[in-house]
Design brief:
Blueprint: H1 16-24, E1 27-31, E2 36-38, E3 47-52, E4 54-60, E5 66-73, E6 77-78, H2 80-85, E7 92-95, E8 100-105, H3 107-116, H4 118-144, H5 147-162, E9 169-171, H6 177-184, H7 188-200, E10 204-206, E11 211-213, H8 216-229
Antiparallel strand pairs: 1-8, 2-7, 3-6, 3-8, 4-5, 4-7, 9-11, 10-11
Helix pairs in contact: 3-4, 5-6, 5-8, 6-7
InterPro entries: cNMP-bd_dom, cNMP-bd_dom_sf, Env_Response_Regulators, HTH_CRP, RmlC-like_jellyroll, WH-like_DNA-bd_sf, WH_DNA-bd_sf
Keywords: DNA-binding, Transcription, Transcription regulation
Organism: mine drainage metagenome
C-alpha cells in the first residue's frame, strides 16, 4: 500500500501535492486487532488518521470494565485533544481489525497546518463540538435512563445512522451484545434480554447476517418518553 491521505475527509480541501507533503511527515503503521494505538494518560501528542479499518475509543473503570466511547472508521482521526492542549491522553484507542492502518502526524505539524488553513481549523472545531454534544447526551442517558432504556437509546442511535427509508434500518453486521453493553454501561445479559423483548414486540428482527430495526419512530418514542419523565434510573 502506498501511504497517502486520499481517504481522509478532513484533507479533501488540500491538493494532491499538499497531501503528499503531509504524508512524508507522518509515520504509517498497520495494527493487529486489539493493538493499543494510544494508551490513556500517556504523554504522546501525535494526531492519528485512520487510513483503513476501524478503531475504538475506550476507557476502563477501576475494576477493569471497558467503556466504549466511539468507533472511528477509515477517513476519521483521533488524538487531536492532546495536540491542542498539551495534556495527557484522555482515553485509549484500540485497533478493531488486522487491516487497520493509521498515520501518526507530529503535533507541531498538525498545529502548523491548522494555523495555515483556517478551513481545517474550523472543521476541527466542528468535530470538537460534536464530541461535546455526544458527551452531554451520554451523561443525560446515564443519569435519566434505566439499563433497558439505554440499550433502546443505543439501538436508536445506530438505526438513525443506518436508516434506509426514514423508519427502518438494517444494522450489518449484527451488533455484538458485549459492544452494546460496553457503550451503555450494562451487561451482555441485559442487552440480550432487551433485544428479545423488542423482537417479541415486533420492533426488531434478526436475520442471518443483520439486525432489522422495523420501526425507528416507535423506538424513538420509547426512548423520549423515558427521557422526558426523568424516570427509570438504575
Amino acid at each position: 500500500m502506498t501511504p497517502n491521505f486520499d481517504a481522509i475527509a478532513l484533507f479533501s480541501v488540500l491538493s494532491a501535492e499538499d497531501k503528499a507533503d503531509l504524508a512524508r511527515q507522518c509515520r504509517f503503521r498497520q495494527h493487529e486487532a486489539g493493538d493499543h494505538i494510544i494508551d490513556g494518560q500517556s504523554d504522546s501528542r501525535d494526531v492519528f488518521f485512520v487510513i483503513c479499518g476501524t478503531v475504538r475509543v475506550v476507557n476502563y473503570s477501576l475494576s477493569g470494565r471497558e467503556v466504549a466511547l466511539d468507533d472511528i472508521p477509515a477517513g476519521g482521526f483521533f488524538g487531536e485533544l492532546s495536540a491542542l492542549d498539551g495534556a495527557p491522553r484522555s482515553a485509549y484507542v484500540v485497533a478493531q481489525g488486522a487491516e487497520t492502518v493509521t498515520a501518526a502526524m507530529p503535533s507541531e505539524v498538525f498545529l502548523a497546518l491548522l494555523a495555515a488553513r483556517p478551513a481545517l481549523a474550523l472543521a476541527i472545531m466542528r468535530q470538537l463540538a460534536r464530541m461535546v454534544r455526544q458527551a452531554n447526551e451520554r451523561i443525560m442517558d446515564l443519569s435519566v435512563l434505566g439499563a433497558n432504556n439505554r440499550v433502546h437509546a443505543e439501538l436508536l442511535r445506530q438505526a438513525r445512522l443506518a436508516a434506509a427509508d426514514g423508519n427502518t434500518a438494517v444494522l450489518k453486521p449484527i451488533p455484538v451484545h458485549s459492544d452494546i453493553a460496553s457503550r451503555v454501561s450494562t451487561t451482555r445479559e441485559t442487552v440480550a434480554r432487551v433485544l428479545s423483548d423488542l423482537a417479541r414486540a415486533g420492533l426488531v428482527e434478526r436475520t442471518r447476517d443483520a439486525l432489522l430495526i422495523r420501526d425507528i419512530r416507535r423506538l424513538a418514542l420509547m426512548v423520549e418518553e423515558v427521557r422526558g419523565s426523568d424516570g427509570g434510573v438504575s
